């Protein structure tokens, strides 16, 4: 695995950030309008899907985030011609000359993203061989890949664990299979989709994840010629086809980025219009936002989020879950706002076993947050018996003070930016490059919203 600092430096470089520390002067509300474009958790998968076709695909509404650049690099080492209009948010991906890449080349490009594992099915179909490099992504738990490997084996792939990494081959081709996921994993569901669409025969996936980003991936695959049905009770059926063509697709918006800006408005006593945000994909978030006292208005071109003013914030009890539950990627920014709600809020994290590391910095800044091993929500989760600290009790309100803090991961990083902006005094936030994995132009957006900061320490 690459180190956290390597990841941060690489990500910072990708978006032209020449320092990894930002100095914030907190205490100002964030007010104004910003735009969110395509979802990190969809765009990167749609890019991989282009590999399955025999014609150039076009993806629109693509954000300029480092994960997109990582996946572009990986596609290029596999012979895909990538043409990109960064400002216009358009990508043209031509898979006419797909070729085998060496493990070293793949490793060199794979750094900060988990997407490389999704290349397996498409590469096995196109080339009969694939490698899984060291995977990046946020360090918020063990993040095993057992579901992925087991699904690939069910299709007929042979998995060899070599000293330099994992190699896959398909000596007898890939065949449809009946696959059950012990947990509705987003990545494993995508792995099955990207492999089954061109496998011979029928695939039935039970206990599938059904996040909006997965539904948009299904849209893209259908545009390419795939036959996929999403049935009741998390069952997805895929009828394999011999060839796939191309897609032209406008990505769904990034609901995780939108929720982060909403939390920023709540935490800083501000008001932010998030252009591009839509209600349907944020339904669960909007309910919690309202219960926490937040005010929002839905418009055709976005959602306006604001602090309730004198009415003040309210404590809430949240349990993160797979869709349609409260998304795990939403909890970190929201926890920062909850430090200002009078009373006790509880967050039970049931998706990742170690997603509260970011709270250390908040406590250093004055927050009262206690972490527990017990399941403090309504349901017992997979982590309760396994000694993982995965429930947080937040007591508010507490005055937050500036501090020197280090970004631990993507969402934790954004929550640290909000914490620095709502605190009195000066905060130096280091390792900020990681935030560029999933937040397009976040410094420009912060400036637009009135944040007071300088790049550097
Ligand atoms: C790039 C991307 O889309 N990332 C998202 C994706 O991550 P990702 O696809 O990695 O997340 P998963 O849904 O696979 O992980 C959910 C849970 O399943 C477990 N698991 C997963 C695979 C496996 O083989 N074995 C296993 O045990 C994980 O450790 C975790 O506890 O979905 C997560 C859950 O919505 C989001 O937080 C991430 O932002
Ligand atoms: C956990 C996340 O992403 P990844 O799976 O890419 O690490 C995230 O977006 O919060």
TrEMBL record:
Stretches assigned to the Enolpyruvate transferase domain: 26-446
Cellular-component GO terms for this entry: cytoplasm
Protein name: UDP-N-acetylglucosamine 1-carboxyvinyltransferase
GO terms for MF: UDP-N-acetylglucosamine 1-carboxyvinyltransferase activity
Organism: Gulosibacter chungangensis
Compartments it resides in: Cytoplasm
PANTHER family in the record: UDP-N-ACETYLGLUCOSAMINE 1-CARBOXYVINYLTRANSFERASE (PTHR43783:SF1)
Positions that bind UDP-N-acetyl-alpha-D-glucosamine: 114, 329, 351
Broad class of where this protein is predominantly found: cytoplasm
């Amino acid at each position: 695995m690459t180190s956290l600092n390597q990841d941060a430096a690489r990500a910072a470089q990708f978006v032209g950030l020449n320092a990894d520390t930002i100095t914030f002067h907190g205490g100002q509300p964030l007010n104004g309008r910003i735009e969110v474009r395509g979802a990190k958790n969809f765009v990167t998968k749609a890019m991989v899907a282009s590999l399955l076709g025999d014609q150039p695909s076009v993806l629109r509404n693509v954000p300029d985030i480092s994960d997109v650049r990582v996946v572009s690099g990986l596609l290029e080492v596999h012979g895909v011609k990538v043409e990109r209009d960064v400002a216009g948010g358009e990508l043209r991906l031509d898979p006419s000359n797909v070729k085998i890449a060496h493990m070293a080349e793949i490793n060199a490009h794979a750094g900060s993203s988990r997407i490389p594992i999704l290349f397996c099915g498409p590469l096995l179909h196109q080339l009969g061989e694939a490698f899984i490099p060291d995977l990046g992504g946020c360090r918020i738990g063990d993040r095993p890949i057992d579901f992925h490997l087991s699904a690939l084996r069910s299709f007929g792939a042979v998995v060899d664990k070599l000293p330099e990494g994992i190699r896959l081959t398909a000596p007898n081709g890939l065949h449809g299979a009946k696959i059950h996921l012990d947990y509705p994993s987003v990545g494993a569901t995508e792995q099955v989709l990207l492999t089954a669409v061109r496998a011979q025969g029928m695939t039935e996936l039970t206990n599938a994840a059904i996040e909006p980003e997965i539904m948009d991936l299904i849209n893209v695959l259908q545009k390419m010629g795939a036959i996929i049905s999403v049935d009741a009770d998390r069952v997805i059926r895929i009828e394999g086809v011999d060839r796939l063509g191309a897609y032209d697709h406008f990505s769904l918006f990034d609901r995780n980025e939108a929720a982060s800006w909403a939390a920023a408005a709540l935490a800083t006593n501000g008001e932010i219009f998030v252009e591009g945000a839509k209600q349907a994909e944020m339904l669960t978030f909007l309910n919690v936002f309202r219960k926490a006292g937040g005010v929002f208005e839905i418009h055709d071109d976005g959602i306006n989020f604001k602090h309730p003013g004198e009415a003040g914030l309210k404590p809430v009890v949240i349990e993160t879950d797979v869709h349609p539950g409260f998304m795990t990627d939403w909890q970190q920014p929201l926890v920062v706002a909850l430090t200002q709600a009078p009373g006790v809020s509880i967050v039970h994290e049931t998706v990742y076993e170690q997603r509260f590391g970011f709270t250390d910095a908040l406590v250093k800044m004055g927050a009262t947050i206690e972490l527990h091993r017990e399941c403090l929500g309504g349901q017992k989760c997979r982590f309760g018996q396994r000694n993982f600290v995965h429930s947080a009790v937040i007591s508010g309100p507490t005055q937050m003070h500036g501090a020197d803090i280090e970004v631990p991961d993507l969402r934790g990083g954004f929550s640290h930016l909000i914490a620095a902006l709502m605190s009195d005094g000066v905060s130096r936030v280091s390792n900020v490059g990681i935030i560029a994995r999933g937040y397009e132009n976040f410094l420009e957006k912060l400036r637009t919203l009135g944040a007071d900061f300088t790049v550097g320490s």
